[in-house]
Amino acid sequence: MTTDELLERILRAPVYDVAIETPLDRAELLSTALRNRIWIKREDLQPVFSFKVRGAYNKISQLGEAERKAGVVAASAGNHAQGVALAATRLGVDSRIVMPRTTPRIKVDAVGRFGGEAILHGDTYDEAAARAVRIRDEEGRVFVPPYDDLDVIAGQGTVAMEILRQHPGTLDAIFVPVGGGGLIAGIAAYVKHVSPTTRVIGVEPEDAACLAAALRTGERVDIGPVGLFADGVAVRKVGKHPFEIVRGIVDEVVTVGIDEICAGIRDIFDDTRSIAEPAGALATAGMKRWVELHDVRDASLVAIDSGANMNFDRLRHVAERAEIGEHREALLAVTIPERPGAFRQLCHALGEHPVTEFNYRYGASDEAHVFVGVGLSGHQAEREGVMDGLRQAGFDVVDMTGNEMAKLHVRFMVGGRASMPDERLFRFEFPERPGALTRFLDEAGGRWNITLFHYRNHGAAYGRVLVGLEVPADDAGDFTRFLDELGYAYIEETANPAAELFFG
User: Fold this and answer.
1) φ and ψ of 25, to 5 deg
2) Residue 304, SS3?
3) Which CATH class is domain 327-402?
4) How many CB atoms lie within 10 A of CB 298?
5) CA 137 distance to own-chain centroid
6) Percent share of the chain, pLDDT over 70
7) Which among 50, 76, 274, 306 is annotated as catalytic?
8) 192-196: which pairs have CB atoms within 8 A and are 24 or more residues apart?
9) CATH code of the domain occupying 52-143
């Protein structure tokens, strides 16, 4: 399909039978902070709190009478599920949506509230999608893809139509969150026809950058396990149709980390008093990164807030990480002499910088390791200045601000050091369902001694776990096979400097 044909589909998409034309809000605080003119496209205000209802409705509305009678089926862990349920109900079509068992209850309940039937199956989207395909084949239903479908893409493209109609004057760039690519494909196709000088910039999480990988290699690639923090864009491989559309017209892709996403959530809250989900704040985070990278000033920029389906439980984690994302907190590991007055000397060396936390670990008879949180004013270079001051005062310092294990686990743990030559540390993501922990303990605990265990959950579909195990060298092969068969996402952290300093 040519972009001309897609443009026609976008113009004809009857999405406003169910969707609303969302406002383009001026972000005054962000505009001042970034010294640009910033607007936020408020797709979080849709009836399902996400843009996904546009594509779902456009797809289902194109079905013939026989297809509507057969009903539709979809697979989703959240926003697409709600969009399909509401769109189908409005059109009088029966809908069944398969969702992973790990899907938060708030999203499962929403499907029922919008008139769909939620079926819980598997622990991942792929498992849920496989079940949805079986239902399609067995019951003759129409499968409604989340992004890899031209009618879905056309429905999402109506977001761009609204932005260009609503924005007063020349628009320099639009920042679009990217998962499977449906939204950016629709937006890019429309924008490059109507306002070709406007840059279309995709934004992906650093740990789920499937479009960036595809553009880099020139073909769609499976990037393997992806990070789940921004679950709405946690896609391993960009869609076939989206990639064919965007590969020649998207100007750039920016990637951001978890801390920057959390800072973006707070930025949107500060300007709108609304709470975006991580994927919803992705574009704002990417816009800030792009402005900093290119030193952009006095430009007109739009970031799409794509959704607000956020579990309340996750806000604590977001608040913790937003300070780091805004360069307002540094996390440092400082080695001090184990003697009276050493803490006082450390505080003097920090000067007037506020201390956000002290975590102490006994190291040896002559030294101690302190995990220190230091408040900053928002400039990245300031962290280096604090570290230089501590070194000049005679302290050894290691920057933990970008260390994921330190931020997720070490800062919340207490206890002493242990010396176990065969100990290995692993950071896992356990599926948040009954039996996940028991399975791990049954399969690992009976074979290898567990030396450390720290679990945290932030209202997501998975729990973050730090585990230490004694693994003799001659067991290494069996242990690797155990990890592979377990199927939980993991990263080995044995060589992490935080582990050496605080766990021994």
Assistant:
1) -90, 135
2) strand
3) alpha beta
4) 8
5) 33
6) 94
7) 306
8) 192/3, 192/249, 193/3, 193/4, 193/7, 194/160, 194/164, 195/164, 195/171
9) 3.40.50.1100
Catalytic residue (choose from 41, 52, 192, 288): 52
**What percent of the chain clears pLDDT 90, i.e. is strictly above it?**
56
Nearest alpha carbon to residue 302 among 317, 321, 282, 287: 287
The answer to whether 224 and 126 are in contact (CB under 8 A) is no
Read off the pLDDT band of 397 (50, 70, 90).
very high
What is residue 185's predicted lDDT score, i.e. its pLDDT? Answer: 97
Which two structure tokens, joined as six digits, stand for 485? 């068969």
For the question of residue 407 being annotated catalytic, the response is no
| Mean pLDDT of the region 148-155 | 97
- pLDDT level of residue 458 (50, 70, 90 thresholds): low
Mean pLDDT throughout 207-212? 95
The answer to whether 329 touches 373, Cβ cutoff 8 Å, is yes
Helix, coil or strand: residue 362:
strand
Give the number of C-alpha atoms closer than 13 A to the C-alpha of residue 22, restricted to the C-beta side.
29
Q: Is the dihedral of CA 415, 421, 427, 430 positive or negative?
A: negative
CATH 2.60.120.10 correct for 420-502 = no
* CA 411/CA 173 separation, integer angstroms: 39
CATH architecture of structural domain 3-45+150-323: 3-Layer(aba) Sandwich (3.40)
Contact 176, 160 (CB under 8 A): no
Each domain of the chain, given as residue ranges in start order, spans 3-45+150-323, 52-143, 327-402, 420-502
Please say if the pLDDT value at position 339 is more than 80: no
**pLDDT band at residue 378 using 50, 70 and 90 as cut-offs:** confident
Active-site annotation holds for 52: yes
Cα(59)–Cα(63) distance, integer angstroms: 7
CB 60, CB 67: distance < 8 Å:
no
